[in-house]
Amino acid sequence: ALAILSNEIEVTENLPMPPVAYRRQTALALFYKGLLSLCPQSKLKSRYASGSIKIHETRKVSEAQFFYETDPSLWPLTKPIPRLNGLVQCAGETKYVDDLVQQPGEVFAAFVLSTVALGTIVNIDASKALVEGAFTLGVGYNTCEQIVNDPHTGEVLTNRTWNYWVPGATDIPQDMRIYFRKRSFSYEAILGSKATGEPATCMGVAVPFAMRAAIVASRQESGKPYNEWFQIDGACTVDKIAIACSTKVEEFQFL
């Protein structure tokens, strides 16, 4: 049935919708998922049974609340001031801890380490929050914020929230650990300060690296060598990841 559907299905290009190859693969995967849900559990091989599970019913969406207040009568004590940055070096690590699923995997944990701190943080208590926001911005830039242009006119087609997506609740790391080197100072930086915005944004590229490792693992299950090169350009969207996995129709099995 999957082979017949693969040969007969007709998918047309419709920018800024995902590529034809991804939409075709998604149609086959959803059809396969439906067949798995109809197959008797006694005949279904255990390794394929998870394919019929509805992910959104088994995974809870993260929830959070944030409160803040400001009192102008206390200014200039708590009044916002311009932030000056100096030189900085940092390192980060992101691990993809989930198997390849039928929907975007959520970022669970990320480690952003300042290996060479060159100054003293001027912003009290706000430094880690600034890094978290900057890192999340970098994650969005490298994953979901894909800009699509009309190939003939150059018009930007992803010009609204309907088709241009920023990171959501499940895209923000649940376990984000940020460390700064203590008691450090640099005479080269402005007032011995540290940068907390731009470096953390650049560290967002660690997420596509983790995704690439997950894609390599998926390709190995399809019989491809782990060191075979495949091209995937940013942003690493769901459709690009699915195409890079190179899953074959023959791999949709039951028994």
Automatic annotation (TrEMBL):
Keyword set includes Methyltransferase: no
Segments forming domain Aldehyde oxidase/xanthine dehydrogenase a/b hammerhead: 91-151
A GO molecular function assigned to this protein is: oxidoreductase activity
Which superkingdom? Eukaryota
For this UniProt record, give its keywords in alphabetical order, as a comma-separated list: Molybdenum, Oxidoreductase
Query: Could you tell me which InterPro entries the record lists for this protein?
Result: Ald_Oxase/Xan_DH_a/b, Ald_Oxase/Xan_DH_a/b_sf, Ald_Oxase/xanthine_DH-like, AldOxase/xan_DH_MoCoBD2, AldOxase/xan_DH_Mopterin-bd_sf
* UniProt xrefs under Pfam families: MoCoBD_2
**Entries under PANTHER family matching the protein:** ALDEHYDE OXIDASE 1-RELATED, XANTHINE DEHYDROGENASE
Annotated protein name in UniProt:
Aldehyde oxidase
